[in-house]
Amino acid sequence: MKMTARRQRMAWIALLLVVVGAAAALASAAFRENLMYFHTPTDIASGEVPSSTNFRLGGLVTTGSVDRDPDSLNVAFRLADCDHEVQVQYSGILPDLFREGQGIVTMGYLDDEGTFQAQQVLAKHDENYMPPELAERLADETGHSCEPFKPVRAGYDTGYDS
Amino acid sequence: MNWTWFHKLSSPPHFHRFARRWTPWMECAAAALVVYGLIGGLILAPPDYQQGEVYRIIYVHVPAAWLSLALYSGMAVAGLIVLIWRVKLAECALISIAPVGASFTALALATGMLWGKPTWGAYWVWDARLTSELVLLFLYLGVIALHGAMSEPRAAARAAALLAVVGWVNVPIVRYSVDWWNSLHQTSSITLLGKPTLDASMLWPLFGMALGLTLFSAANVMRRMQAENVRRNARQRWVREQLEAPHV
Fold first, then answer.
1. What is the pLDDT of residues B126-184, one digit of tens each?
2. Which of B49, B85, B169, B195 to probe the A interface (max A CBs under 10 A)?
3. Per the structure, how many domains does chain A have?
4. Closest partner residue to A9 among B46, B84, B182, by Cβ?
5. Which 3-state string (H, E, C) describes chain A?
6. Could you list the residue range(s) of the whole structural domain that residue A11 is in?
7. B116 vs A44, B23, B124, CA distance in Å?
8. Residue A157 lies in a domain
9. What is the pLDDT of residue A63?
């Protein structure tokens, strides 16, 4: 095959794309943990969260666990993913979408008793949209799946007994 | 494979006639689809069971976000043609797509922030989806700035093309960021193979908006390309003939 100027340019660009693609893949693999927006209760159970600094914790608000203090903004609830639960303590205004069964992401730290002291609570809604009547007819307990809060590291040994 | 149509379309005078004939029709179809999408989405579609009325920003947010990725891919393909085949019309396409794509990226970010505050509780978070979309905006601005910084138009187009092609690596990162990493942003409601998780009564106006804004973008890019094409060939005889010809 004759190496025309055009073929040479094609080869250079193909090589460039392979190199840039490989660099991007390696970088995202190396920073995989840092690119995670939040940890899950399973991460806490397996001891994979920082002990002294703030981190984000995501999960579903366990049904029946919300305990509001009538005289202040204090609220206590449990957060769960598909496998584990964590007790959370928060003082402040909750987002409108906060309710039992709702997915949320909180920012805070784990205290010595294993309670998560949250300083910020954000709601994480899922990708399902439907009219209220349909949601009523579906009538599942919460309407939410713990699926988004599974640790994304599929096939990765988390070091605990499941 | 017969490439005659491609070579014909990449000839500047032929493109000029083609664009002048078809752009108005694309704009009419775009307007009709957007009117259908807005009435269907803002008035006829039911409120969401959880978010109530606020979810309706989806009818602008999702088409804008989809176009920010689609236009970048189009710009990267034009960039490849510029770098390998040195087609002049692809140089026009590259620099005509960039501002349209940058606008839709900015729109996707702005509507996303307006949606995030009432639902999540924050305008902005540094999760993978939002951050990679912001990087996409910077890539568009980089292509525009690099092109504008060089005075020789053909060299400018080649430099901008290289950035556009290399930057394409960010497009799959934006698309799959919500699947690869834990993020606050929810995963896609509409995928190529899966069943949409948006109820049918909400879905059709969204498709209308997406198709309408896609046609609008295509028509807008064609008009920009027409102008750039005429500017670059200002000394050619066909330009004078075309411009003096009566307009349809």
1. 989 999 999 999 999 999 999 999 999 999 999 999 999 999 999 999 999 988 888 88
2. B49
3. 2
4. B84
5. CCCCHHHHHHHHHHHHHHHHHHHHHHHHHHCHHHHCCCECHHHHHCCCCCCCCCEEEEEEECCCCCEECCCCCEEEEEEECCCCEEEEEEECCCCCCCCCCCEEEEEEEECCCCCEEEEEEEECCCCCECCHHHHHHHCCCCCCCCHHHCCCCCCCCCCCCC
6. 1-35
7. 27, 36, 7
8. no
9. 87
Query: Hunting for tokens 């666990």 — which residue is that?
Result: A65
End-to-end CA distance of chain B: 34
Annotated domain spans of chain B: 57-201+221-244
Mark whether A29 and A75 lie in a shared domain: no
Is B44:B200 a contact under the CB 8 Å cutoff? no
In a domain, A90, yes or no: yes
Q: Are B184 and A148 a contacting pair at CB < 8 A?
A: no
Helical axes B58-85 vs B153-167, angle rounded to 10°: 120
Is the CB of residue B182 less than 8 Å away from at least one CB of chain A?
Answer: yes
* pLDDT band for position B39 (cuts 50, 70, 90): very high
Q: Looking at the predicted complex, does its ipTM rise above 0.90? A: no
Are both A80 and A13 inside the same structural domain? no
